[in-house]
Request: fold
Amino acid sequence: MKKLISGCLVLVILVLGCASKGTTKVGEIEIPDWYLTPQTSPDYIYGKATATSQDLQLAIDKAKQGARLDIAENLESHIMALIKKFDEEVGGVEEGELLTQFTQVSKNVVDQTLVGSRENKTKVKEEGNGYRAFVLMELPIGKAREELLKQLYSGENENLYTRFRASQSFQELKEEIESLREYKKGEEEGLKEFK
Reply:
């Protein structure tokens, strides 16, 4: 009987150990280990994000967009910050009143074109009435980027590149980037006046 109980206990421990292999539990959420400690490579920059939605595909799309933003922020970020601190003391040491106000404002602006970004890993789990997606995106750099650009611009992919350049969404994106650049230029001029 003791051997049977011991055998069952060992089996339960093995099943529980295998069920959580490759994940870390934070509260009620099981997070993939590759999300907590993404891989590194001299040929790729990685970005990760998680998102939720009642729609499976929307959860994945939101996470992919967040992961691309993570990559873009790793490449270049323009951060502006303003910190103000105000102290005022009224009265003496015994009956005095100290008033303090602290304000901190920051803004992060990103402007990057990510040619060749793609999903490296994706994990989707049911959560509540919807889904949670974990996504790891990668962007080739160095030799990997050169190879991707050669493929994109080669004759066999000429139609793909032509459709990409001619698409309306490409034009809209270009206009949005120009608007962002003009806005950044105005912000920089405003900061010069602030100094």
The two ends are 81 Å apart (CA to CA). Confidence is low (pLDDT under 50) at residues 4-19. The first strand starts at residue 23 and ends at 26.
